[in-house]
């Protein structure tokens, strides 16, 4: 099955009408590769839940959490102890336990793991061994809501990160004067990381509907694009054979290095062959022979230091090679026969590319 021009036009017009794709801000935790590790998140929570720590947010996180528990608990003036991995009598571990003069708070933290924790064991430990005439609170903190009809929580109140952060952000204004860098940045990064995990997809509803309505045609178009890629790769290889044959005949084959480059994620319908040689100007000059569906074109740049295009300009100007500087610091050839049609034969396109290679490598002495 192939698509008609009318079908392709319909697909492209629909694609153009879509809103810009929403990009998630990549956080430092994501860059480091720790966005979904519960232990890492629990360690961060421990730091910010401890009012006396140097973050400067005081009891912001604890106050926000108790607001969601629906309890008016005064944190100021209390001795607060926040512990990680609280062991129970039967060697189970509660993610976080917070003790003060008046209360005990147990927190089970869930990122992506299932809700299979032994909540009854945790509840027993908190009620029996830690209570000591204090009020006991239990919280299940999770990214996604919990179906309480399917999970027995034994007194643990389910609270999502989204609700917690909404309260924190609503209350954070009064803490900006006391909060300290870089902990403000770290905390913001943590919030953004969790929010990124909450988003099941970056696809908006309009975009999802477009792909649902056109998935068969899009699949067909992808298949045709793959065939186009194969054809371009074949043509580039044939061109390279001609260029290397001519280079060997002209005794410049030892001056150059050649290699292919094929379609990349950012340029799915493009391929080419590149030729590099070391100039007498103490830099390496690379010539790219590029092919896309529109046809062939040439570009060259300073491979030693791509940003330094002045050396390339000084090299090509005496050789009467006209060019146009691109945004990527490459010089696009704009002289006579600056491009060739896609259907150009391998011999003709190879000779055309070799002619530019010879002009670039020729000495002016």
Walkthrough of the structure:
By secondary structure, the protein is of the alpha+beta class. It has 2 domains: 24-198, 3-Layer(aba) Sandwich (Trna Endonuclease, Chain: A, domain 1); 227-361. Helices cover 40% and strands 20% of the residues. The protein is built from 10 helices and 12 strands. Strands 6, 7, 8, 9, 10, 11 and 12 form a 7-stranded antiparallel beta sheet that branches. A hairpin with a 2-residue loop joins strand 8 (284-292) and strand 9 (295-302). The two termini are 59 Å apart. The model has no long low-confidence stretch (mean pLDDT 84).
The mean pLDDT is 84
- Number of separate helices: 10
Q: Report the end-to-end length measured between terminal Cα atoms.
A: 59 Å
CATH topology of the largest domain: Trna Endonuclease, Chain: A, domain 1
Order of helices and strands: HHHHEEEHEEHHHEEEEHEEEH
Write a short abstract of this structure.
By secondary structure, the chain is of the alpha+beta class. It has helices at about 5-15, 30, 40-50, 60-70, 120-130, 160-170, 185-200, 205-250, 310-315, 345-360; strands spanning about 80-85, 95-100, 105-110, 135-140, 155-160, 255-260, 270-280, 285-290, 295-300, 325, 330-335, 340.
Q: What structural keywords apply?
A:
365 residues; Trna Endonuclease, Chain: A, domain 1; 2 domains; 7-stranded antiparallel β-sheet; 5-stranded mixed β-sheet; 12 strands
